[in-house]
Amino acid sequence: MRVEFDRDTCIGMYQCVAEWDGFEKDLNDGKADLVDGEEREEDVFVVEVPDGEELDAKFAARVCPVDAIEVYDDDGEQVV
């Protein structure tokens, strides 16, 4: 499972930070950061979800008020 995060879309509500340790606050920019995320394209970061953290990653995506977070299963299908 992987998470894709569009940092440009992020408005810094930090609800994802409360749901999953895979996100952290960047108070300088007023946005969240995807921990250990690799930049796939400009301001779009991707990370593999560690085993046992799938549910937290899904919750982080669901609570994002601007849908900046997408979660994909191992087959590449979007689940959130």
UniProtKB/TrEMBL annotation:
Pfam families: Fer4_15
Keywords: Electron transport, Iron, Iron-sulfur, Metal-binding, Transport
Any one GO molecular function term: iron-sulfur cluster binding
Region forming the signal peptide: none
InterPro entries: Fe-S_cluster_ET
Identification of the protein by name: Ferredoxin
